[in-house]
Structures
1.
Amino acid sequence: MDQQAGSSLGLKDLNITDNSLTIDEFELMKVIGTGSYGKVFLSKKVDNGNIYAIKTLKKKHLIKKNQVEHTIAERSILENVKHPFIIELAYAFQTKSKLYFVLEFCPGGELFFHLSRIGCFDEKITKFYCTQIILAIYHLHQNFIIYRDLKPENVLIDKDGYAKLTDFGLSKENIKSNTDAKTLCGTPEYLAPEIVERKGHGLAVDWWSVGCIIYEMLTGQPPFILSNGNKDELFENIRKCALKLPDNISPQCRDLLAKIFVADPNQRLGGGPEDGLEIMRHPWFAGVDWDMILNKQIKPPFKPRLQSQTDVRYIDEVFTKQGVGESPESMADSLKGGMWEGFTYDGKRGFL
């Protein structure tokens, strides 16, 4: 994508000042995540000692993989959406080759980290985390945002033991029906049938993913598995909802999953005009005080036991044993007039 094409994405013609942050204002302490477009670093802001997770993205990779629009959407969503169970953006800045998201650090690590070590959760623990995921997704939907990337790796545990959604790189704004989005994107095992069919999809795909993550928390594996790299077989199983529900789960949970794993998004629980309220009212959630969950007044099943603000014991060593190895460009760059114009952000002051 060239700069002219990037400018057509509707970015504001902003009067960007020169006092934006640079990477030199942070001490990069540990690698805590990696992805196809960059790394995530545990970082300390030098002037005040505040701890953050800094997500770095390489511009050339984003352009090559046609991810510019997705990244701009992620930046917009992180700025505008504030919720107890959604990761918070503190700052955003850029250099000529990289973008930087400065995010709150969740020291409890990924839900995937805990699930992979325990094997599976019981229904009580599964339900606890699911309530926060549902409230976060419902809030996104109320703002016409589709998430599209729900999986245990994208659910973080904060210092209080509550869940937060992270990574909005596949999210899309202005989704108001079950057919508004067209792009085939997401992790194959978690795709809803309508995404696989490429006939347009909408908010209901997130409720399909909620079913997937409930199933995975209870069993230790996703409901639909990519076997021997055979995506055709995987997608056919998803289209047909070819799934055997576990025998050892409660009748209420079986009923919930059966009503979520429905191929037609308009017939799926949560796929109607009431969206997530349909899910919240299901008998499996009987007795849940959603307001107490929202206000973090329920004791979590697990709370991180931390020796310091920078304790990474709940982050997989596959990340933390990597060398920081960052040779950052110190020069901040607003690139006024280009495809990344308006990316720079300070949570206290808004756009810079």
Note: The first helix runs from residue 3 to 7.
2.
Amino acid sequence: MASTTERPPANKVPLRPGDRIFSGISTGSGVLILVVLAGVAAFLLAEAWPSLTAPAEQIPGGKGLVLYIWPLLFGTLLSALFALVIAAPLAVAIALFVTYYAPRSIAKVLGYLIDLLAAVPSIIFGLWGFTQLAPLTVDPTTWLSENLGFIPFFAGPPSATGRTMLVAIIVLAVMILPIITAVVREAFMQTPRLHEEAALALGATRWEMIRTAALPFGRSSIIGASMLGLGRALGETMAVAIVLSVSGGVTFNLIGSGNPSTIAANIALQFPESTGIAVNTLIASGLVLFAITLIVNMSARAVINRRKEFSGAN
């Protein structure tokens, strides 16, 4: 009679006390983030509600809440998006150079410098833009106005001080450049070595190896890093407030003296002297910025999740 062996049922391994504590702390931290986020949203909505229900003539400017916030939202999106357009390609190029082209000793030094640049306070960038960059752009913007004035971005007349939206965009691009570069560089360093060696073994050049192995692997990280930099640019306050010469209005002219402000800079400049409904109006503009930032981050997460099945081990 053949003996049969029964397979013992698979039992879950009991968690040790340390595992339970760590699991509880991790879960609590995640819940705490959601609670804080919900609390911030509730605070902004509650404080902004008087301005949402107030008559148009009581809102600063006397034209209503929408017409008050719209130029600020336009300036915020214009400066942040143009800064991202400048910074993202440069960040990817720098990350590729540091990872694949620079000698190891130079790459190590550049990595330290990139991390150090990301830690510089924003007010330092603002002072640099105001004192050094703005005067240097006066002659180039004059040339742009004379030769490319048919393009709305360079319609002019150019500002005599250089405190233009173009300078604010360049300052924002420099500020978010090290953040994007650091994240993308780490992603490229995680590219599977087997993928790179396989591409080179098949006769690919270094650029072809980067295009077929490194860039596809790091695509989601590039998107995530770009959205991280965009969020930084959307919420930047002091650098924009120092650099920009604000006159209000909605314009695509990047080199003129009439520039729309940004939401964050307007709150920083107006809040100390505001009272009553003006404070509620500023908080309402902050609520709009909060919503825009949340939408940007959720969109980036959706794009990244579409590629979560891609694995370097595949």
Note: The domain at 38-305 is CATH 1.10.3720.10 (MetI-like fold).
3.
Amino acid sequence: MLATSPAFKENATQALANAGLQKALTRTRPQHPAKRAAAVAALPEFEQLRDIGRDIKNHTIAHLDFYLETWAGNVERAGGKVHWCSTADDARAAVLEICNRVNAKTVTKGKSMISEELGINEHLEQHGITPVETDLGEYILQLRHEPPSHIIGPAFHLNREDWEESFRKAHTDLPADRVFHERRDIMSEARNELRAKFLAADVGITGANFLIAETGSSVIVTNEGNGDLTQTLPRVHIVLASIEKMVPTLEDATSLLRLLARSATGQDFSVYTTFSTGIRRPGDLDGPEEYHVVLVDNGRSAMVGTEFQDMLRCIRCSACMNHCPVYFSVGGHSYGWVYPGPMGAVLTPSLIGIDKAGHLPNASTFCGKCESVCPVKIPLPMLMRHWREREFERHLTPKAVRSNLALWAWFARRPGLYRVATRAAAAMLGWMGRRKGRFHSLPLAGGWTDGRDLPAPEGDTFFARYAREQRAGRV
């Protein structure tokens, strides 16, 4: 997927002016936080479970080499094969080699963000293989030739009329009087189209929410059941997974599953939670003849031992973006690559470079909501600060920003002068804005006033007021 992250500001400007996107974001904004809050309130041990989830992931990352080797051995004992892939090119080549060897013409796919990261669909199409997205949201995006805008609700940015328009364009035999008043109408139309494709597929590709070292299993979590059909009907099942999806035991996986759905959709558990272990065994009613796991590093091992290691705890629940005011202002496509929102603001620079993704760690109000709802307690604001520091150290920030920060730092290192200067500035701006109470424009503040008014200061500075309260014995 081509990264447009360097154009984040331009992307965001267009998103703010997109009436359809703003309608979709406004409609969905309150839903996920409310559902999560209700699910958390119904589970008294949720905070304790967050600590357990954090510790499981920390332990796994600290011993990742051991658990990867243990898991790979168990995959092979169950009749599967592991393809170790250091780069995206390696992973694409592994998937293509499997498909070519079995003479695959059609591949069905379950929703997988790692496949978006690798650009699997485009790679297969370039080599004459037809990929078919079977997740409802991913299917409509494939018809529209659009990338996902959210990691669990890929079509987050669309409205009902967008679905109907896309179906009428793509499904040429659709009756003119067919209506799409409700979600079930949309699901029925997609199901009718996909049923034959499930049966005809030569290979099925899924992602993995977790890989279990103890058993060599992969786990997928869905609400539609398409993932089960994708991995059991074709002769060949390919799992795409990144190395940080590893957990030691079945018990660890179930602990994390208790966190995942509650944090993602407010469900106790998703409708389908499916464990896959190797090939079809004698007596099994279904399952693949071949089971392959394409295990992807693609920059993740370089994060181990750095200040960004905590990001490898992420279980892709999307709670951070579901509570992020920036995400719900500009949508997922503005971030310009696979992973949007706060988790994307940390992970994307790690994978494609801070030189390409430097705007993303700056696209945050630092309200801290993302960290407070993260099921595995990733300190996302702190990690974004680390990226800002890297950006500054490498002189990637604009010269004007660096100059203004240097000027502020000069004053900040001289507290007495700083207090005098801020009191004088507050008094002057307060006097200038006394009539309207705000500024429509202000020299050296165009970055703010081009998009909104700047409130005029009221009263004295915080430092001055705090000093008065101290002297009066009130603080």
Note: DSSP finds 23 helices and twelve strands in the chain.
4.
Amino acid sequence: MRFKSTRGRGGVVEDIYISNINVTGITTDALRFNLYYGGKAPNLSDLTNIKKDENDSPEVSIETPAFKNIYMNNIQIIEAESAGYLKGLPEMNLKNIKLENLTERLKMR
């Protein structure tokens, strides 16, 4: 399940309810929220090297996408690379994303 957008697109994705889903045989992340889709995301593997500048967190405008109030319940993930990946924007964090009763059996690495 992919939820994606990027700066410049704007819009709001909100009030979504997903329940009773089985996800099987996924080669990447089973759930993905990405507000850097098609854009340049910061490398978070080494937090000590991240530098803050004026381009890291632009002001919120009509072109800033927002994801909020998304509820997922009874999700079973079988054989995925990872259960989930969530990446919001510094100026517009993901808000009120709730996962309940999520079970996983990931691929062996």
Note: The two ends are 22 Å apart (CA to CA).
